[in-house]
Amino acid sequence: MSAMDQRLPSVPLRRFREGLGLSIGDLQERIAVHMDGKKPHGDTIRNVELGHKVGSPALMAAWAKALGLHPLDVHQPRAARRPMADAS
Questions:
Q1: What does the pLDDT read at residue 82?
Q2: What is the mean predicted confidence (pLDDT) over 38-60?
Q3: At the topology level of CATH, where does 10-73 sit?
Q4: Burial class (CB in 10 A: 0-12, 13-18, 19+), 47
Q5: Separation CA 43–CA 41 (nearest Å)
Q6: What's the rounded mean pLDDT across residues 10-28?
Q7: What is the pTM of this model?
Q8: Of 77 and 40, which is predicted with more confidence?
Q9: DSSP string covering 6-33, please?
Q10: Among the four residues 2, 21, 29, 85, which has the most C-beta atoms within 10 Å?
Q11: CB count, 10 Å around CB of 29?
Q12: Which of left, alpha, beta for 9 (phi over 0: left; psi -120 to 50: alpha)?
């Protein structure tokens, strides 16, 4: 069996955070530890968890570490975006 066939089940970031009993504020504090004290805004956390925004690689690496995961364990697929209508 190849490495690709040995995938672990995926869990949405919000469910994982909530499963650990962490609030958004708790997560902000934990992420700040891994980002030189820079705490992401609560709206950023919400938008990434809901899939409305894509986190930067640095944010997602800090997020993974804040949850006790390896950065490669956190995968955030880009949301399918519809092309904007031509304004002309």
A1: 46
A2: 93
A3: 434 Repressor (Amino-terminal Domain) (1.10.260)
A4: middle
A5: 5
A6: 93
A7: 0.75
A8: 40
A9: GPPPP--HHHHHHHTT--HHHHHHHHHH
A10: 29
A11: 13
A12: beta
If pLDDT is split at 50, 70 and 90, which confidence band does 33 have? very high
- In this structure, of 39-43, 49-53, 76-80, 81-85, the range with the lowest mean pLDDT score is 81-85
Query: CA nearest 40: which of 20, 79, 66?
Result: 66
Non-local (6+) Cβ contacts of 51 within 8 A are 79
Sign of the Cα torsion 61, 75, 17, 24 reads positive
End-to-end CA distance of the chain: 52
Sequence ranges of the domains in the chain: 10-73
- Total residues found in the chain within this entry: 88
